């Protein structure tokens, strides 16, 4: 179904983040601007074999540049299945859905090489769902010289339109990113550093666990402050915003740096690095935020949340405190961006990705009628 520019319509968004812990799917109703109603959302796991293949490919930068047709089809089919599960679980009227925003799975993000790759076959998804699909959200930004990430800031601004500024919205997903909403219409966004992916990879390697539940392992260990200080000397932290990171930017050096530590001390040290790199982001803001709101899986890690609040001496609250589901904010975002894409509205700004001008993006794959 088509919609007028100012009409509120229903969209579904889907994304698998860099932590690859599942496919987030959510429904929103919006005009693609500031009118926004969040609907239901859920996370559906990848098939185990697909997740294993993705981790193997992402660990090999050369492999991420190969055709990968079979893996892309499998990733697309997993996203389609997740969307179908949401439609069934929440009794969504398919006829009321205007379009789907499908981000796909990032396997390599190298904006300085003008390269970013998300596995997602829009034509295949549109045919399977019998719904219009927008995908390929990052390529236009990167091709124009932008970082291609983060893309969630305009959605963060819509979510927080009624809140007092200055305000920071932090997403602790695989990689951390922050949106600073300053006085007036000021908006600045960038990747902060490591988040769940680094910690998850550590505990998976050491203990065969998917993640450090509630940060309990990290809480039981001692922080090696010399290691944290050494990791914070990475040149990335001195680069001015906006800027973005590949999932594995810190992995080799950070995991090597804690190799001699026991499990608890290693987890504690990597958690402290995550907190310190996040706090360092505030140096880029024009004012200190009155409050930080946190999305993504990291908000469930009590050790990280408490340490960040102590480090910042500022309220740090989960996004649920303003009525949104922090597990599916990014999925909601790509439904929202799909609506903006169809209207030719910008998805990114010079202050969010470093692109030279407000940049539209996304590619529409219409379903057969």
Structural account:
- This protein is of the alpha/beta class.
- The protein folds into two domains: 159 residues, Nucleotidyltransferase, domain 5, CATH 3.30.420.40; 170 residues, ATPase, nucleotide binding domain (Nucleotidyltransferase, domain 5, 2-Layer Sandwich).
- It contains 13 helices and twelve strands.
- Strands 1, 2, 3, 4, 5, 6 and 12 form a seven-stranded mixed β-sheet that branches. Strands 9-8-7-10-11 form a five-stranded mixed β-sheet, sandwiched between helices.
- Helix 6 packs antiparallel against helix 10, helix 8 packs across helix 10 and helix 10 crosses helix 11.
- The N and C termini lie close together (10 Å).
- The relative contact order is 0.18.
- The model has no long low-confidence stretch (mean pLDDT 94).
Summarize the structure.
By secondary structure, the protein is of the alpha/beta class. The protein has helices at residues 48-58, 69-89, 122-129, 139-143, 153-159, 196-207, 216-219, 225-231, 251-257, 263-280, 302-312, 329-343, 350-353, and strands spanning 9-16, 23-30, 36-44, 97-110, 115-119, 133-135, 167-172, 175-181, 187-194, 292-295, 316-318, 363-365.
Layout: helices, strands, pairs:
Layout: E1 9-16, E2 23-30, E3 36-44, H1 48-58, H2 69-89, E4 97-110, E5 115-119, H3 122-129, E6 133-135, H4 139-143, H5 153-159, E7 167-172, E8 175-181, E9 187-194, H6 196-207, H7 216-219, H8 225-231, H9 251-257, H10 263-280, E10 292-295, H11 302-312, E11 316-318, H12 329-343, H13 350-353, E12 363-365
Parallel strand pairs: 1-4, 4-6, 7-10, 10-11
Antiparallel strand pairs: 1-2, 2-3, 4-5, 6-12, 7-8, 8-9
Helix pairs in contact: 2-3, 6-10, 8-10, 10-11
């Amino acid at each position: 179904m088509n919609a007028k520019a100012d009409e509120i319509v229903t969209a579904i968004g889907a994304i698998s983040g860099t932590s690859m812990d599942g496919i987030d799917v959510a429904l929103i109703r919006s005009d693609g601007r500031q009118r926004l109603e969040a609907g239901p959302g859920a996370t559906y796991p990848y098939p185990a074999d697909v997740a294993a293949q993705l981790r193997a490919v992402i660990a090999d930068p050369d492999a991420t540049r190969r055709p990968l047709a079979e893996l892309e089809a499998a990733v697309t089919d997993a996203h389609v299945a997740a969307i179908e599960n949401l439609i069934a679980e929440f009794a969504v009227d398919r006829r009321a859905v205007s379009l789907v925003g499908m981000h796909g799975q990032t396997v390599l993000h190298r904006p300085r090489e003008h390269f970013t790759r998300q596995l997602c076959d829009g034509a295949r998804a549109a045919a399977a769902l019998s719904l219009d699909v927008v995908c390929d959200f990052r390529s236009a930004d990167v091709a124009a010289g932008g970082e291609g990430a983060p893309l969630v800031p305009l959605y963060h601004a819509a979510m927080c339109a009624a809140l007092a500024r200055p305000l920071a919205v932090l997403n602790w997903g695989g990689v951390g990113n922050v949106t600073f909403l300053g006085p007036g219409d000021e908006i600045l966004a960038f990747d902060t550093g490591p988040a769940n992916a680094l910690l998850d990879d550590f505990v998976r390697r050491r203990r065969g666990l998917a993640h450090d539940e509630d940060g309990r392992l990290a809480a039981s260990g001692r922080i090696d402050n010399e290691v944290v200080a050494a990791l914070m000397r990475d040149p990335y932290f001195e680069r001015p915003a906006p800027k973005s990171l590949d999932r594995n930017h810190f992995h080799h050096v950070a995991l090597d740096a804690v190799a001699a530590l026991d499990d608890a001390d290693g987890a504690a040290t990597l958690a402290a690095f995550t907190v310190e790199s996040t706090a360092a982001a505030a140096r880029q803001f024009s004012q200190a935020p009155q409050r930080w709101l946190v999305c993504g899986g990291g908000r469930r890690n009590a050790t990280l949340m408490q340490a960040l609040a102590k480090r910042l001496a500022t309220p740090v609250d989960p996004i649920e405190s303003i009525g949104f589901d922090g597990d599916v904010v990014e999925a909601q975002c790509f439904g929202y961006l799909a609506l903006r894409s169809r209207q030719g509205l910008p998805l990114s700004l010079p202050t969010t990705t470093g692109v030279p001008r407000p940049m539209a993006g996304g590619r529409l794959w219409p379903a057969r009628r």
